[in-house]
């Protein structure tokens, strides 16, 4: 161990310092600049990444275009694409401990979470999507167009890779988001320019090394680092990028969407959320309390699907809210590398300011702080898990995404009111319903305007389940078979005979 990190991770940090992957070469930014990478558990500098420029974007996109047209990649059989993805998944699994540690140091999340969810989740997803490489299908079509007596037309459709993909990802699940973008792109034969968030570039860069080790031709995957407002914007506006796959805030997603639509490139957007957790009168209180607490406090509340609005039937309101608050107060907060930690720091001082600011706004809107409501008096970016009650449904803390460990709780009197409150949001990413009444659940689920509705669980994401948002939560569905639509074009071929 050195500096509290394993020697493997210390070596990786040294090797990756100030470098990014373009066209198979590891190099610094063309302007020579770097940006510090901060450990959120102590606020100290962990590493540095390149401060990439639009010139670097041009080079990465050109490398991805060359790779897309290179027969070594373009003519690779589906079986070989599947095999390569399995090799990448195997390499990731073989380095699971190192990746979990890197993710925790970079993002702050508890090592338990990165080693049990982030890394295995990325491996499982790569394995799942590898199987689709050999199952891309078109259809044969009977045409009605008249021709000679014994002649006709034979028509069929093909699925072809969309081309060069610009993938822009956030800091909350950096490795998993990288896998969600790289997996389907590589399964379908696309090439990628991946831009991780500035707060958390490390696991994406290390994954770039594994991509090379797995044997992908140079330029099939490029990992570039730099500021979103410079590099991300240049990538999303680049005329030779065929598709942008973006996960991040609704504000930036809207900007990206505009620039992409202007040039008619393809785009998928996975954006923000303000997901309701609805507890019906007959719910198992113990399960609902544990579920509601995990729904908001996992990953420090920095999850797009976080159950950040709790609506409880008035008859059970005090019991459930007190139960969630008691769990919050008991949570062990500390550095993610400490094995006892249940909640780590927020990702950055900026995020800490945002979360603390929202709780102050909540107080000014009349909210009572049932538990939490303070930053921790220690180095690093720590904030207490917080539960607010007593504000109106129209309050900003109820309507706006906080992206931190802050839960707002409100009572309801009947199912119609629960539906109205749950749907009273600009977002529509996910929701959960807690109840043992099958009829009530089946009546409620279709009425919730969200891309995923969980029943008696929350945050259950599986590679087989399509995932994405209604309303301002985004556009397109990742995972499941549905993701193939995002990374392929359908071509009709019509043959006269
Ligand atoms: P953003 O600020 O939107 O950043 C996301 C990514 O976009 C980062 O890589 C960022 O780069 C880049 N970016 C910033 N400005 C850009 C621009 N003008 N053009 C192109 N790219 C730009 O979000 P965040 O704060 O990192 O992440 C939190 C948000 O992501 C939350 O709203 C959350 O709900 C959402 N999220 C959604 C999902 C799904 S699946 N729906 C999953 C995770 C997170 P820099 O880091 O360099 O600024």
In percent, how helical is the residue content?
Answer: 25-40%
Total of domains: 2
Question: Biggest sheet, in brief?
Answer: 7 strands, mixed
Structural class: alpha/beta
CATH structural fold name of the largest domain: Aldehyde Dehydrogenase, Chain A, domain 1
- The poorly predicted ranges are none
CATH superfamily annotation of the largest domain: Aldehyde Dehydrogenase, Chain A, domain 1
CATH architecture descriptor of the largest domain? 3-Layer(aba) Sandwich
Q: On the 0-100 scale, what is the average pLDDT?
A: 97
Q: Span between N and C termini?
A: 71 Å
Beta-strand percent range: 15-25%
Query: Within the largest sheet, what's the order of strands?
Result: 14-15-16-13-12-18-19
Radius of gyration: 24 Å
> What top-tier CATH class of the largest domain fits best?
Alpha Beta
Report the principal-axis shape. Answer: globular
DSSP summary, beta strand count? 22
